[in-house]
Amino acid sequence: MKTATITSSSPLSQLQLLLLLRRQTDVRTIANHYASQLHLCFPHNPLSYSLARTIHAQMITSGFKPRGHILNRLMDVYCKSGNLVYARQLFDEIPQPDIVGRTTLIAAYSDAGDPKQAREIFDHTPLSIRDTVSYNAMITGYSHNDDGHNAVKIFGEMMADQFKPDNFTFTSVLSASTRIVDDERQCQQLHCAVVKSGTESVVSVLNALVTLYVKCASLLSTSSMDAARKVFDGMPERDELTWTTMITGYVRNDDLDSARKIFDGMTDKLDVAWNAMISGYVHHGCISEALELFKRMKEDGIQYDEFTYTSVLSACANSGLFKHGKEVHGNIIRTEVKPASKLPLAVNNALITLYWKNNEVDQAREIFDKMLERDLVSWNAILSGYVNVQRIEDAKELFNKMPERNPLTWTVMIAGFAQNGFGEEGLKLFNQMRMEGFEPCDYAFAGAITACAGLGSLENGRQLHAQLIRFGFDSSLSAGNALVTMYARCGIVEAAHLVFRTMPYVDSVSWNAMIAALGQHGHGAQVVELFERMLQEEILPDRITFLTVLSACSHAGLVEEGCRYFESMNQIYGITPGEDHYARLIDLLCRAGKISEAKGVIETMPFVPGAPVWEALLAGCRIHGNEELGIEAAERLFELTPQHSGTYVLLANMYASMGRWNDVAKVRKVMRDRGVKKEPGCSWIEVANKVHVFMVGDTLHPEVQEVYSFLEELGVKMRELGYVPDTKYVLQDVGDEQKEYVLSTHSEKLAVGFGLLKLPRGATVRVLKNLRICGDCHKAFKFMSKVVEREIVVRDGKRFHHFKDGECSCGNYW
DNA sequence: ATAGGGTTAG
Asked: Does the keyword Repeat apply (predicted)?
């Protein structure tokens, strides 16, 4: 159609043109002809290029030399259709191109991402013919090529050369500055220039100025937001863009109230503004406000889009509102015409997270599998799903299959290993991550440090701590929290405390970690002290705080305090005690010998007692030899979790502590008969371990003496039966002297276990519960099994290591 | 001008 228009509206027919060309008389008529022909080439129209080539060819055959605006027009068409080379050829044929032609080519080179060429042409343009437009082209060019510094530099030259900037100049230079701003003074200087130039009522300029101040505020969190507000308030009219910029500015400055005021001040609220406000609430954890807006958005007749959905879905996923999240999902499916698999990528990614957080990994996987396109976020989302439900094998498989990875991928995986008792693999992955050139972030460090905590590997932990400081993450919250735990688990509460004290920011997780650290080391009084300080500093305790405090009270025999804290949970802090809390309370009462009270609690509990509660009762009965109740608890446990070997061990423990070895044997037989998977050869060691664990927490209890003598007896029994004492089983050497000996490393543990390290008589031995097998340990065990010709089985979290004749096989218990 | 994936504490 365009071609038809062109031919019919041609001022000269082909015949006329040919005649004119042959005679070569009327150059002006020919020029006019070409001008009007070129006028029909719309720069961005794809047909224009071939038309321009035809016209150009005619010019050449007719010997017509284009100049002036005909030349510029032709260059423009070539540039806009992506044929810069032809444009440049034309340009080079002209002895003295004018400023319009130069500017055309400058803009074209900039658009093509070649600001160097643009700069060359500009530099060869004499100052006398430069104009504002050519400077603007340079500034815009640098700005679009993400080179803010040069854009600002050219602007400076322009000012120095006394050229007058216009609103285009400022819009460009301001947006270029936005990318490089690191000082409020830069904003103010530009602001002054705007006022001086008289463009301070042009909306696009003011908008760019607001954006600049807002960016400055988000970087430096200074008073720049106020400056932005002043410009904003003084604007003669505002477009939606400016409003939204202000909203996100306040959101990034954590000033949600001001953001909301701006939002409420908008008369015609664009969906983008709604989305910005909602996501602002979500990022600050104000879920109810976000959902409230989400609801009102619909009432106001604003269409949801994918941005709205993703924000809201992630809000639901992160706050446990799965039901609501699924309703939204249903809504999306109903209202969007597309099939579910064709939902926008980000929406599907948010859905994956929603489902796995609701323990529906398989549904999450289904969404993942059905997606027509996936990106790294999708892979990372499903990967964390598997990691978080402890399906570590699936996670591994996925990890190996991933088309690409980023630091986050590694972080998720490292944490997954660390949390599931595969500390060594976690550390290995951390190293591999670095070898493959990925910069670890503080979360990755936190994961690796947690791995060390699980392994009880102080050496690695310290190294990571040093690296952490070198990387500049020493003020990281999550890494700091992990360090507190690592040092505590490795036996150095003082170091844990030091980290805690020197952390610039702490949160409830840090407090919980520190309280737990003290609790694990039996410092009951200090636990209470720290907890009270936490309350004074108005940090709200959460359910984990109470779990920690309750078990610390239990270990330290602080019955009254424990009960009081339990009461306060609901009454003061509005936290409904869960089953875990009840189990801890029962444990607390049982250890203090208040078994009937514990029974009373079980009877009046607001829900049916489950395994953790009965287990606490059974453990209590074991200590106090309450056989009748102990058996009842064990029976309940056999009903609830018949395949859980812990119950059998606990029951055996109870009989063991009464010296009833025949009954212990009976329990072992029942366990075998029922096909309960037991740790090969380890049941007896478990008995010893349980007693030992009891010892670790209860060194202050009067029963300690009894335990000592029992252990001696048990040790003899074990040897008689041909079992190798576990490395933890070293207590028979301990006498009455009040000297404490903390085994914090594997090598120490090993040395003691094999009698290589003689403990002073009378030392109290504390082996940290969470010490696990590290590489060195492994080697030592292998060596020992070869030299001493013994079979050694060692438990390491959920895994076992079986050493025989210097060979080792490893696996999972369950 | 707005969106989606992670971490630490028992």
From this structure: yes
pLDDT of A421 over the 90 cut: no
Q: How far apart are CA A140 and CA A417, in angstroms?
A: 50
Task: Report the distance from CA of residue A463 to the C1' of nucleotide B5 in Å, as an integer.
Answer: 29
> Which residues pair with residue A795 across a beta bridge?
A800
Mean pLDDT to the nearest integer, A660-667: 72
Q: In whole angstroms, what is the distance from residue A70 CA to residue A37 CA?
A: 10
Per-residue pLDDT of A190-212, as tens digits, reads 999 888 888 888 888 999 999 99
Rounded CA separation A611/A617 (Å): 10
Q: Which pairing describes strands A763-767 and A739-743: parallel, antiparallel, or unpaired?
A: parallel
| pLDDT at residue number A20 | 64
- How many whole angstroms separate alpha carbon A47 and alpha carbon A718? 93
pLDDT in tens, A97-154: 888 889 988 988 888 888 888 898 889 998 888 989 999 999 998 988 888 899 999 9
| HSE-up (13 A, CA, CB side) for residue A768 | 31
Q: How far is the CA of A364 from the C1' of B10 (A)?
A: 28
Summarised one tens digit per residue, pLDDT across range A249-263 is 999 988 999 999 999
Instruction: State the nucleotide closest to A517 in CA–C1' terms.
Output: B9
User: Tens of pLDDT along A485-529?
Assistant: 999 888 788 899 999 999 988 999 999 999 999 988 778 889 999
| pLDDT of amino acid A505 | 87
Beta carbons within 10 angstroms of residue A163's beta carbon? 18
Dihedral angle over CA of A679, A685, A686, A689, nearest 10: -140
Q: Which nucleotide is nearest to A486 (CA to C1')?
A: B8
> Which nucleotide C1' is nearest A513 CA?
B9
Single-letter amino acid, residue A60: I
Measure A453 CA to B8 C1' (Å): 12
In this complex, the nucleotide whose C1' atom is nearest to the CA atom of residue A251 is: B2
CA A504 to C1' B6, in angstroms, rounded, equals: 22
Protein-proximal nucleotides of chain B (any atom < 7 Å from a CB): 1-10
**Residue closest to sugar C1' of B4 by CA:** A346
For all residues of chain A together, what is the average pLDDT? 79
Q: Distance from residue A443 (CA) to nucleotide B7 (C1'), in Å?
A: 5
pTM here?
0.72
Residue nearest to nucleotide B8 (CA to C1'): A478
Phi/psi for A727 (5° steps) reads: -60, -25
Round to a whole number and report the distance in Å from the CA of A553 to the C1' of B4. Answer: 43
Chain-centre distance for alpha carbon A257? 26
Torsion, CA A272, CA A273, CA A277, CA A279, rounded to 10: 10
Residue nearest to nucleotide B2 (CA to C1'): A276
Nucleotide nearest to A244 (CA to C1'): B1
Q: Report CA-CA distances (Å) from A756 to A284, A372, A751, A803.
A: 56, 62, 5, 19
| 3-state class (DSSP) for residue A809 | strand
Give the separation between CA A217 and CA A226, rounded to whole angstroms: 9
Which candidate, A284, A285, A369, places its Cα nearest to that of A321? A285
